[in-house]
C-alpha cells in the first residue's frame, strides 16, 4: 500500500505594484487583514492530463473554522484575483489561542458555534466527477495566538478520506448490466478544537457507494476511515446476469486493522470465464507453512507430487525422512512428512486414541482438544521464549496455591508423555472440550467448560502467565459455523498475522487437530491442508515388532467444497467435514505492555 499524499505549491500572483487593485494602495498586510495561502495536494481525480496536478481557481471556496476554547467562528473564503477574501482581521478569529481548520470543498451547512466535532461525509454516488470531487474532502490546520497574530498564514491541505483502488481483469466492464459498488461508512468525525485527522464514526451509516471509473478496468471510491471488518461483503459486482461479492480481510491494510484517513488501499480482482470467481493474488498458487514452523536454517519441504516418495505400510522404520511420502497400499491422496527435531511443528499424541483401547498409559481418548491445544502452546511458548525467560526472572517462585502445578517446557522431543499434553492429562478428566478454551486457561487461568479433574485444580490453578495476562486477554479463538468464505478468510488471516491454527472435523463424531500449513489453488482458495492428528500414533504399528520408528507425522489432505449449508467444507476424498477453525495469537502486544509496566 502507498500513501496517497502529494504536495503541490499553489502559485499566487500578488503583484503589489499593480494599480489595478485599489484595495492594496497604501495598505500593509496587517492593515487590510491576514493573508491566507493554501497549498493544495495533487488531486486524486486527475485534472491536468499531462501533469496530473490540481489547482485552485477564482471563485473556489474554502470553509474556515476558528476554534477557541471549544467554541468556534466560521468564515467562508473565496479566491479572487490571487487573494482569499474577505480579508480577516485577528479579531475575526478570536481573542487568545485559536485552532484554525480549513476544509475544501467548503461545507454547505457549517455546524453550530458551540460544537467542535465536525461530521464529514462522502457522496454515495461517486460515478460522476462532481460526486467524486465533493467526496474528496481536504483538510488543513494551523494554531496561532492573538497576542502576536500571524500576518500571513500558510496551510497545507491533505486528503481526509480513505481511498480504495480497485483493478478488475477478466470481466466485461462494458456489459449492459455491469455495475460495481463498495460497502463502507460514509461519515467520519473531525475535532476542530485539536490538531488531528478524520476519525472513524461508530454511528456512521454503512452504505453501498458507487465508485468512479478511471478506465482500463480500474475504479476508485472514497469513504470515511473505519475498521476493516465493517460489513460482510465489501465489493459487489454485477456482470452478465451474475453477482459477485468480495470481502477482504483485515490483513490487507497491515497491522493497523483500520482503513485510515488520508491513505489508500489497492485491491486487484481477477476473474475466470469458467467460474467468474475473484482470484486472491496474494495466495494464488502458493504452498505455505504457518509462521514459525520453518525455523531459521531448517527449511521444510512443501508437497510436490513429482518428488513424493513411496513407502510400504509394514515398514514404518523405513519411512523417508525430510521428504513427503505416500504409504502403499494406503490412500494415495494422503501424503506424510515425518517429524524431525529441527522442525517447528508439533504433534502431541494420545496414549489411548480410541475410548476402550488398552495401550500402556493414561486413558485420554476424549482429550483431542487438549492435544491440539498442547501443539499450539508448544509453538506459542517457543516463539515467546524471550518474554518467558524474563517473566521467570521476575517470578521465580509460584505462590502456595499454584505450587502443585509445574509448567511444562516448550521443548518437544517426540517422546509420548514428555510434552505439554501431560499437564492437561494430570489436571483434566478424559472428557470432550475446546482447544481454544484450554489454551486461554493454560496462559491466563480463565477458560470455559474446562473438565477439571478435581476441586483443587478448579480452585487453585490461576494460569502460568497470570502476572502478564488477565482474564479478559484472549489468545485463542474459534470460528463456527464455517462457510467457504469464512474458512478461507480465517486461514489467510493467520498467515498474514503470524498465528497458528486449530480445527475440528466430524464424521461419526467430533475430533480436534492442528493445522501447520496450507496450499492454495490458482484463485487463492485453500486447496489442501498440512495438519497433525493426535489419534495416529499407532497407525503404522507392526504387530509383534520391537523395531523403533518415527511416530509423528504431518499429513497432507485436499480440501473440497460443497453446497451443503451446514457443513460445506470436506477434508480429503471422503465425507469428513471441517466444523470449526481456530486461531492462536502470540499476543506480543500484551507481552510488550507487561514489559513496559516493569519499568514504571
Description:
The protein has 600 residues and is of the alpha+beta class. It has a domain of 249 residues: Immunoglobulin-like. It contains ten helices and 32 strands. The strands form eight sheets. Strands 22, 25, 26, 27, 28, 29, 30, 31 and 32 form a nine-stranded antiparallel sheet that branches. Helix 4 packs across helix 7. The radius of gyration is 31 Å and the shape is elongated.
Tags for this entry?
600 residues, 10 helices, elongated, alpha+beta, Immunoglobulin-like, disordered N terminus, nine-stranded antiparallel beta sheet
Beta strands, count: 32
- Measured between the Cα atoms of the first and last residue, the distance is 37 Å
Helix content: 10-25%
- Tell me about the largest β-sheet: 9 strands, antiparallel
Named CATH architecture of the domain at 22-270: Sandwich
How many helical stretches? 10
- Low-confidence parts: 1-30, 43-53
Based on CA atoms alone, the radius of gyration comes out at 31 Å
Question: How is the CATH topology of the domain at 22-270 named?
Answer: Immunoglobulin-like
Q: Indicate the overall shape.
A: elongated
Quick one: CATH class of the domain at 22-270? Answer: Mainly Beta
Instruction: Supply the helix-strand structural class.
Output: alpha+beta
| Average pLDDT rating | 87
Beta-strand percentage range: 25-35%
